[in-house]
Structures are given as C-alpha cells and as structure tokens.
Amino acid sequence: MADPAKKKAIFIDMEPVGRRVQVEAGSTLLAAAQKAGVELIAICGGAGTCNSCLVRLVSGELSPPTLVETEALDREEIEAGYRLACQAVPLGSTRIYIPPDSLTTPQRLQIEGLETDVALDPVIKTVDLKIDPPSLNDLRADTTRLNDALVERGLEVAEIPLPVLTRLSESLRARDWSVRLALRRGEIITCLEPENSPLGLALDIGTTSLAAYLVDLASGRALARSGAMNPQIAYGEDVISRIHFARSEGGREKLQSTLIEAVNGLVHGLCEEANVSKERIVEVVAVGNTAMHHLFAGLPVEQLGGAPYVPAVSDPLDFRSCEIGMDLAPGACIHLPSNIAGFVGADHVAVLLANDIGKSSGRVVALDIGTNTEITLVSEGRLLSCSCASGPAFEGAHIHDGMRAAPGAIERVWIEGERIHLQTIKNQPPVGICGSGILDAVAEMVGAGIINNSGRMEKDSPLVRTNHENQNQAEFVLAPSSISGHGRDIIITRKDINEIQLAKAAIRAGIEILLKEAGIGFSELDEFIVAGAFGNYLDIKSTIRTGMFPPLPLSRFRQVGNAAGIGAKQMLVSAAKRRDAVKIAGKVDYIELTIHPDYMKIFLNAMYF
Amino acid sequence: MADPAKKKAIFIDMEPVGRRVQVEAGSTLLAAAQKAGVELIAICGGAGTCNSCLVRLVSGELSPPTLVETEALDREEIEAGYRLACQAVPLGSTRIYIPPDSLTTPQRLQIEGLETDVALDPVIKTVDLKIDPPSLNDLRADTTRLNDALVERGLEVAEIPLPVLTRLSESLRARDWSVRLALRRGEIITCLEPENSPLGLALDIGTTSLAAYLVDLASGRALARSGAMNPQIAYGEDVISRIHFARSEGGREKLQSTLIEAVNGLVHGLCEEANVSKERIVEVVAVGNTAMHHLFAGLPVEQLGGAPYVPAVSDPLDFRSCEIGMDLAPGACIHLPSNIAGFVGADHVAVLLANDIGKSSGRVVALDIGTNTEITLVSEGRLLSCSCASGPAFEGAHIHDGMRAAPGAIERVWIEGERIHLQTIKNQPPVGICGSGILDAVAEMVGAGIINNSGRMEKDSPLVRTNHENQNQAEFVLAPSSISGHGRDIIITRKDINEIQLAKAAIRAGIEILLKEAGIGFSELDEFIVAGAFGNYLDIKSTIRTGMFPPLPLSRFRQVGNAAGIGAKQMLVSAAKRRDAVKIAGKVDYIELTIHPDYMKIFLNAMYF
Q1: Domain CATH code at residue A163
Q2: Is residue B344 assigned to a domain?
Q3: Residues of B at the A interface (Cβ-Cβ below 8 Å)?
C-alpha cells in the first residue's frame, strides 16, 4: 500500500541513469521518464503494442499488470518485476531499473560505465614528504636525501627508475623539497604537487572502437570518459586482416604507432575535459582482445594469424608508458591483464571480472559481442571459454545500408501488419541501419513471415520488391526515399540477411558447444550476461526471435554495457581485482571451436531461423 | 749466476708489452728492446745521459749497475731493481718490467688495458634451452612455454622486459626453439644463437676523450679497444662550461645525444673490428666523472654547477641501454657505479677499485689527472678524497703550441747545456707540444735555470728571446722553424709556464690537504699511484722536479694507465667487483677544497718551483 501521507508527492527514481522526478498521481512510468528527460524507446507512442518500453520495479508499488502486459510478458518476467512503462502507474514513490535495451542509444552512451563500485586498493600509494635541502655541510645526493627521508618516516628505500630520475632534481627544487610521492611496488613513479591526487587511465581497446576513462585514484571516481574509432581500421577491418598487414615491412610498428597516437589524443581530450595535467596520470590499465593487446604493446601478432594461434604472452604484463610512446607521469606504468588464448583476450577477462564470474556459484553465460565474440560458460565452478568469428555485421559493416550507431541510424524496428515503425538515433530522418536495427528488422521480418526459416525473402509479401537491375534479387524496403534523410531508399537485401545469419549462427554455435561440453541444457542457465557496446544496444527479444540467443525468460538476461571498461577501471583502482583477474584467466578451459568435432554441424543448424 | 747451459740462448721477456726476444750475449736491454720492436725512449741515443730508458728487473740477473746508473738512481730505486736499459746487460734469460713513462706514446696506447685479471663472476648468466614448440594440443603462450622450460631445468621463472618480449617470439621461431638465454638477475636480456657467448662493453667517458672496450663475458677477454674524442667539446671544453650549456633550452638533451652518438660510433667500430653483432652486447659498465655520468644518463647537471655541488644520484644506477638510445641486445642494461661527490665520479671509484685501494693496508695516494684531478689518500684504513681544478693544460689546451698526443707532438724534452733534445711521437718532425712534453720542458727549464722559482724566464739565457711584437714577452724556442714540421717556431711562453704552474699547484695543494687531514707527511707514503691517459705519458722525474708530485723515490710511483677503464672492465665481468666499488665509494670522506681553510695558502705556495 502507498503511504497516504506521501500521496501528494510521488517521486520516481530511475536506475542506472540516476534521475529522480516528481509526478502527478495517475501518470504512467513512461510519462514520468519523459518528464525526467529519460529517453525510453516507445515506437508505438505508448499504445502498448510495441513492447519496447520494458522496465523493472526495484522498490515501491505499481498498479497491477494490464492485459497488454500479461500478454507481452511471461510469468517469470512479471514475478521478477518486469513491466511496460506505458502501462504501469506508480501508486507512490517507486524506484525502477531501466534495462539498456529500453533506452535510446545516445542516452545509453551517457550513462555507460562511470561507476566503479569496488573497494579502493590501488597499486599506487602516495606519501607526503618534507625533505631537508642540501648545503655545503650536507652534500648527500638528491636521491640519497629523498630515500633517507622515506626511511625516517619508517618506509622502505625506493627505487627510482631513470625516466623519473631525469626530472626528479628539478621537481624537488621547484617544489621547495616538499612533495607528494606516487609510489608503485617500491618504485617512485612521480613527484606530485602536494595538493594533487594521482590519476589513472582505463583503456578498452576494441578492434573497432576505443574507450578511455580518467579516474581519480584517491576517490575511485571517474572524472571523464571518452571514445574514438580505432584508427587501425585503415589497415584492415578485422583482426585477421590487421595481422596480415602486420606481416608487411614496418606494418606492426605502423599499427602500434597509429593506435598510440589515437590513445594519446583521447588522453589529451580527457585531461582537457577534467582540467588536469596528463603528468598526473600515474597508472594505466588497458584491456583488449589478444591481437589488440599485442599490437598496443608492440608484440608480434604473426603467430596469432595461423594455427595453433598462440599468444606471445598470456600472463599479465607491466611496462612503462614511455616505452610505447605515451607521455604521462615520468614513471607511469601500463598494466595489461592476462589473456586466455589467441582469440580470448584480457577484455573478456575484464568482462568476467566486472561481473564476478570467477566467484559465481550458478550457471552463467557471459559473452561480449564484437567482430569476434568471446563466450564463457560457468557451470559447477568450471569456466569454459571460446571465441567465434561473428564478423562486423553488427557494427554496420558488410550491410547494404549499414552504418555505425550515429544520429539518423535506424536502431529499432517494429513491423505491425504492413506498417513499419522505425526508431532512429536522436529521432533524425533515417540515413542507414545500425547493428541493433538490422537485428531488429530481421527478427521482425521473421516474425511477420517476410523471410522463411532458411532466410529467403517471400517475394509475394507486399513489403518485398524485386530489383530488376540486380539479378532480380528480392529487397525489403525498410525506409523509402520519401522519408529518408538522404532521399534514397534504405533497404535490406538477401545478402544482409545472410550476414546476420552467419553472425547469429556463429554465436549460437559457440554457446551450444560450451553447454554441450558442460553437459547442461540452456534452460538450466541462471543468468545470461551480454556485455559490450553492441550487446547493450540490441533488443534481447530480437536475439531470441532470430535464434542468436536461447529462448530464456527476459529476466535472466543482463545487459551490462562496456563491462570490459568497467573491469579495467576496477583493476585500475584495486590490486585485489588484478589478482582476481589472474585467477579467472588461470581457471578457464579454452575450447578451440575450429577443431571441435560437432562445431560445423551445430553451426549449420543454427543458420536457420 | 747465469745458468751455463742456457748461455747460448738468452731470452728477454718484457712486461707489460708481452714481447719475448732472443739476444746475443753482451747486448744491452735497450738493444734487446729495439730488436723486439719495443719503443723505449732514449733521447740521448743510448749514451747514458738522458736517464729516460728506465726499466725494472723482475727475474733473472743483470750486469752490476754502472757509474752512470748509481749517479742517476738512488739506493731505494736500485734495490727495487730499477736500471737504465742502455747500461744493463743481461747475464742470462731475464724478465723486465718497462714502466709506461719509458715507452713512446703509440707503444703505450697499444698495450693499454687489454687485460682484466679478475675472477669471472658476471651479472649475466647464460642457459641453453630446448623448448617444445606449440601445437593445437599445446596452446601455451610463448613466454609461458619458455618459463616452463626454465622451471623444468630447476631454474626460476624469468621476467621478460618489454623490449625483449617484442622480439622474443621471432627469435624462438628463427632458432627453432633452441636458444641460449642471457639472464640478468632473473630477467631475460636476449636470446643468443646457441654457439655465441654474451659480450660486454666497458666505457670510460672522459671530459676530453672516450675509451671503449669490447669484452667476451664468457672468457673475460677484451676483443677490441677503441677511443674517440668526447664530441661534447663543441659545447664547452671543461665540465663547468658544459654545465652552463646544459642550462640552455635543449642543452642537456643535446649534450646527451651528441655523446650517445659518439659512443654508438665506437660500438659500431668495435663490433666491426671483432666481427660480431652489436646485438650480442648484453651489458655495459660506464664510468666517468659525475657530470659525464649525469649527462650520459640524461640526468640534470644544473645543481653540479653551483654550491653545494650535489649530484642528482650517487648510488649505482642500472637502466636499459635502449632508454638512452643505445641499440644493443634487446634488454641490455647499463650499470653506472657509485660516484663520491659532485666532482669525484665513478671513474675515480673505478681507479681505486682497479688498484685494490679499498683493501690496501698501506699509505697510498691514487690520483687521476685530467681537466679535473681526483685524488684519494688511504691511510690507517681511512679513505680521503678531493677534486682539484687542474685545467686542460696537460691535454695541450691553453698552451701556445699545445696539441694532443698525436704524431709530431713533442712528448719528451731533455736540455743538455744549450742543446735541446726532443722526442716526438712516431719520430715525426715536431709540430707542437703535448702534455707530457710541456711538463718535461718546464721541468728541464727549471733544472737548467732558464726559469726561476716564481716561473719567470731569465732573459739573459741564450735559449730565451724577446718577442718585440708581443709586449716584449720572453719566449723559449723549443724547436726552431728550421726543424719543425710546419716551418714555424715551436715556443713556450710565460703564459704557458703559468698554466703549468696553476695546474701543478692545484694538484700538489690537493695532495697536501689530504696528507694534512690524515696527519702524515709525504715521505710516509708507501705508494703513489698515477692513473689516467696523461698520467701514463708524463715523466715522473719531471713531476717531481716541477713540484707537482712530492719527491719520493721512483720505486714508490706506479703509473697504471687507464685504470678507470680497467676498473670498468672488472665491474663488467664481476658482480663482486661491483659490490667492492659500492663499499669503496661508501668509505670515502670527501674533502671540499674550496671551503678548506688552508687551501688557498697551500695552493699559492705550490705555485713556486
């Protein structure tokens, strides 16, 4: 029962966007979100027909489920608190959770990964020192003087690496011998101004995109977040083509320097945004797939390009940022966590870490969808991992009208009879289709019977036309030129559908092989964690309809956004988390799909809708 | 008595040049040396009048001392085995030692410092490994595989620094997984070809000149030696002017890069000479004065330029060669031993080390003459050190006709009545005067009464002329245009004599202050060690005659050549020697002459002849 005393003031708290709004009694949650500026997807305009405005009750009380809701949601989902925001009316102050796939893309980007909810235990410690200056009666060298002051404070003598040493004497004198030292495992990393806290940088180096977070190591708070394309794309869209390029004369160096330049650009932007000097950045944690990890550190990738696909190194790696051309605090170090195999990298370890997979007692699948999709199954304390080549279709590549998630991209599709409803990013006129849009479109086309279970388009559907200029191929017009932003039709071709089939089949086959190895069925899964930028955008209902994910109740799915970035941030602020990551990587049994006897059969089967 | 059985075959062994020659009975040692191609100085042509062909009997029997010898040498010297080679006749096979100042300059350069007579105990260890290659059934990363092989051999897991890691995978595959690892304190420095031994580089970085030695670390044998000018001379002749230059924008970096470039050139030459790849060089030991040490490592020198003249660092310093732009084995390290003070550097520590000064129970002075002269006195187990600004006169700078020790340089002078005898390098017609020549000339001029005890030239001497074009200054014509190699007179001016007075007074004052601090007189010294290139060239008799060194018997002097380089080589092949060097540096009490109350008085007094 709602508290009568609070009837006049109903507050709705929305997670994880972190917004609170006061509403009139009788408002729906959708209206509350709109009032708060939270962009819930509602293609049908709140008519209760598109089922896209899904939310989950955390605390408080809502009106009972409507007929629309009991039809759209199954019992387990309703019991878990799932509701349609256009139907549910708060009966008092309530707190709701909005799953990422109910939010528009720009909104999701804003909220992504700023929190790092772990106990602070950074590898960097600070010590404030006041040191006696030299005189003709006290001729100790600068480093002796500094170390003597540490010993007087009851601390150990510190190592001073050369890049720190070359600037130490000036720093000590410029700060009048009063400094805040940043120490890392007995080494001095830099002398800070006494009033400044040390900063850290978490990097997620994807094949396609880069994400960077600037973190205050004293508070654990992220000060700024930034992203960019991985400029290596100019030398190959996917990992394999970059490995090929790395074989050419100077190729590896070019890939590295291009990447470092982009990362340095991100650092510059982050520091400007937070109004801090990059010399305060004392520690970096970078995660990426194994090839990105190797190219970032300048390691050879040739051996990743052919069987048996072994990494040069799989243990954690620490080196100085200046060794790869990143100019931060003089002695700043970069920590690259363990990777698992040639195609299961430290980014996946970070995903597992961020979701406490190593400590999970249930049966959990965690996957990170990208050009390569890494999947881990936890069952009975075992960790099984594999990697599938899912291709770049979900990043908008190899799709006729594909594009990246940018304004005007169709991100959500709903087919109602012969009417096509579209949601575009920033509600701009459509100019292309991004990954979640193409998946949605295919799922809706399957649902509407426009494509059959083998992926062929039914030419007698009124929404399908024949392109006489292109070998009489069937085409589905998603947005005609009359409404598009560029005056051309936006279409889906047979080839587009095939790309999606290949991608979804690869992922599904990976999941099936892991379940088979563990001897369990998908219905026994307690949780299904979907990580990664694209994993955050996609509509879970569409993944089930296309067969990419197994048909579990929505309540078992969890879209965790850029969990790799979150894991990187956790390792940035916590040495314990670094140790956990080593343990996780060490526990994993890697399954090489290409040599698994059942893979091809399962893969071909998974091509069907 | 000579062994009658061997009378027909008399062999003379000469140290340290390492020559053996068979001579006829009745030949003098001088004739024996000439036959062996050993260039003893004999300005008088063997007449027994110039006393320059001094040698010392090691074993065997010589004819009794002649009257010429008993007049030239004192009793202690004769008892110690000192003889004039032009007088002494071997009575059978004998072994003689030829002190450096009895040899011509080119001869001395050839024999200098190739031996390193210490027990091998290098910081670099090698391990030969055969590693199982990867397969689809064995997906361990390259580094895991390598470390597992080390552990199977009962060894510790090794750290692999990034510069090694970037080349490791290729090396392992190129060598078909059979490699010789060079390990340093638990770190892999490089993978060698299984048949190659690791090499080391010893560097002596002087203000004026550089010396480099390429050493086989498996045998301790020096493979090649090379020298060059320190190209920093373009930015200032002495340490103080370079410190001044380092203060200018980019000055420090310029001084460092110029030096490194020259060192890289030496390395290139050494490797060509020994026909080896520079990638086999796994370890470097570099010694130099504190300013050179700092500039080589890229450390700030500004604080060395003003009171209280403290070094940035005085403890030993290890860093990777690639950090300062030396491209050797991927993980090669540079070890810089301890220095003692702003003006007593690691080169002096190396001199003390090479001469076992730290372990000496006697009373010993050891000094290294250069633009700065570092002096250490050992007495009653105490070590006292100081540094004196002796200036560049002994390197031929600031002297009217001064030149470096090169062909045609007057290296030895002997004045017999009104006749001047000259010895030039390579017996070329004279073109200038090098350091030992100017010291000899001044000593002879003092002896001949041509200059008085205050340094003024006696204008009534027939060898002195008045230069009417230069303020009627007195000039001593050492070599007239008629015999010089360039057709101009080679002269000595009043200013030249003053330069020598300043230099010798600075050195003598330093010695006196140390003796005073220790409370002993010079006659109590057991040994007087003269190190350094110039220290090797000079004529000890002249140093005594000018008052630069105290008047001890010649037998107490020991000219040890480039002892800094020898000490560096010892530290290259022996970790124990590195520990000894730390102990020596830690034991020294440094005396700052500029604030010593008696310094100025003693210095002014020492200006007189």
Answers
A1: 3.10.20.880
A2: no
A3: 134-136, 138-144, 160-163, 165-170, 173, 297-300, 302-303, 307-315, 317, 319, 323-324, 341-342, 590, 592, 595
Report pLDDT digits (tens) over A373-385.
999 999 998 999 9
Query: B127 vs chain A: nearest CA distance in angstroms?
Result: 21
DSSP state of B402: B
Same domain, B388 and B521: yes
CATH, residue A37? 3.10.20.30
Of A136, A160, A595, the CB nearest to B136: A595
**A513 belongs to a structural domain:** yes
What average pLDDT score do residues A422-426 get?
90
Q: B309–A138: do the CB atoms touch at under 8 Å?
A: no
What's the CA gap between B530 and B366, in Å, rounded? 6
Of A384, A244, A591, nearest to B137 (Cα)? A591
Beta strands A222-229 and A209-216, pairing class = antiparallel
* B132/B231 same-domain check: no
State how far the Cα of A140 lies from the Cα of B314, in Å rounded to an integer: 8
CB contact under 8 Å between B165 and A309, yes or no, is no
Tell me: do A214 and A325 sit in the same domain: yes
Q: Which residues of B touch A169 (CB under 8 A)?
A: 299-300, 302-303, 312
**Residue B310 shares a structural domain with residue B178:** no
CA A274 to CA B402: how far, in whole Å?
A: 62
Query: Is residue B114 pLDDT above 80, yes or no?
Result: no
Report the number of distinct structural domains present in chain B.
Answer: 5
Question: Hey, what are A502's tokens?
Answer: 């290949």
The answer to whether residue B109 sits within a structural domain is: no
For residue A160, the distance in angstroms to the closest alpha carbon of chain B comes to 9
- Residue where a domain stops, chosen among A297, A315, A336: A336
Nearest to A136 among B173, B303, B307 (CB): B307
**Residue A236 placed within a domain:** yes
Tell me, what amino acid is at B161?
A: P
Same domain, A210 and A324: yes
Residue B476 and residue B505 in one domain: no
Question: SS3 breakdown of chain A: % helix, strand, coil, rounded to 5?
Answer: 35, 25, 35
pLDDT reported for residue A370: 83
CATH of the domain at B516: 3.30.420.40
Model confidence pLDDT, tens digit, residues A111-142 = 555 455 788 999 999 999 999 999 988 999 99
How far is Cα B563 from Cα B349, in angstroms, rounded to an integer? 10
CA distance A180 to chain B (A): 19
Residues of A in contact with B592 (CB under 8 A): 136, 139
User: What is the value of pTM for the model shown?
Assistant: 0.85
Chosen domain end from B429, B460, B490 = B490
**Cβ neighbours around B286 below 10 Å, total:** 29
Nearest to B310 among A142, A310, A595 (CB): A142
B160 and B141: one domain? yes
- Using the Cα atoms of residue A118, residue A119, residue A122 and residue A125 in order, give the sign of their dihedral: positive
Together in a domain, B385 and B406: no
- Give the pLDDT mean for B350-368: 90
Cis bond leading into B99, ω under 30°? no
Q: What's the pLDDT tens digit per position in B549-585?
A: 999 999 999 988 889 999 999 999 999 999 999 999 9
Contacts of B313 in chain A (CB under 8 A): 141-144, 160, 165
Report the percent of chain B where pLDDT is more than 70.
Answer: 97
Give chain B's count of helices (H) and strands (E): 17, 26
What is the overall mean pLDDT for chain B? 91
Whether the per-residue pLDDT at B411 is higher than 70: the answer is yes
Rg of chain B's alpha carbons, rounded to an integer? 26
Question: A160–B134: do the CB atoms touch at under 8 Å?
Answer: no
Task: Quote the domain boundaries for residue A26.
Answer: 9-98
CA distance A193 to chain B (A): 20
